[in-house]
Predict the 3D structure of the following.
Amino acid sequence: MVENNELRKAGLKVTLPRVKILQMLDSSGHRHMSAEDVYKALMEAGEDVGLATVYRVLTQFEAAGLVVRHNFDGGHAVFELADSGHHDHMVCVDSGEVIEFFDTEIEKRQKEIVKEHGFELVDHNLVLYVRKKK
Ligand SMILES: [Zn+2]
């Protein structure tokens, strides 16, 4: 199984809750899930994994570099698999929906601005808080 290999590669022992949670993050149509989202999805799939276990496993996944945690304003922390390249996020303030985007102009300008201040860019995290246009 792919999940078993991913766990081993990350230095984690293969346990059933870890496999189930990793599968859920992989297969769910939502790339950004809170611990509650993962818990509910597992319940709906008939999997018996408690919320406390989901929290603990997601924290272990984060420490092992398998997932990235985002603490967006006004919501729960959401987790996404660390398998995609760099991107930024938009968060809808009404629905909490998370939208990914990547813009080469923004990426370029950020580097230039940092350079103008005598630095080099190490990392960045851009979050736009948005609302559906009426
Ligand atoms: Zn993302």
Remarks:
- The beta strands are 33-34, 67-70, 78-81, 88-92, 98-101, 127-130.
